[in-house]
Amino acid sequence: MQREGSIPFRTAPQTESTDKEQASGGTGTPVISTEEPSRPGINTEGNKTEKAYYSSFVDYIGNTVNSRNREYFLAAFNYYYPLYSKWVNTRYLCLVESLLAISELRSIPLDDLKDICNAFHQFINSQVFEELPVDYPYWDEMNNYYDNLQKFCLQAEDEAVTVRFSRNTKALLIASRYELTEIVHRVKFDQLDFGM
Prior knowledge:
Blueprint: H1 19-23, H2 56-68, H3 71-80, H4 82-104, E1 108-109, H5 110-124, H6 127-130, H7 139-155, E2 160-161, H8 167-181
Antiparallel strand pairs: 1-2
Helix pairs in contact: 2-8, 3-4, 4-5, 4-8, 5-7
């Protein structure tokens, strides 16, 4: 059973009827199986069954994604402006993943953090960014992350710094990453030019 607000799993469409469908009378409603799925290359005999744990943080991320409902705008933006969509969303996804990665590190060299800050600066001041529709869903987020990152870099005095985000900020970053990976593919930071 799926919790309210959780992110639904996607299943591939089935073209041939399976044994489970035939057991349910061919209605297309799957029969719930109590059998443990087989795992290729892993001997599951004698192993304890895995137990699922509830995570309020994962639910919070799922509720954030569902409440923001951005996939419709992103799909329409991608359909009507495919070049802008790919350019902007690929770079923002890269920056979001960079922020998430540095938040997991014990410390990061200040120069590396400044590289991310400079990429945000080039990105936000690019001609493509200025031509985005006013209702682009990540507009405020991008500016907010850039402003906070810039202040942090200017105030830092050590050669290595620790970056931590609040629970809410981290959930927003993860939700943005989830939404953007539905539209564009990941590209490494050093393979992108953030200004144009």
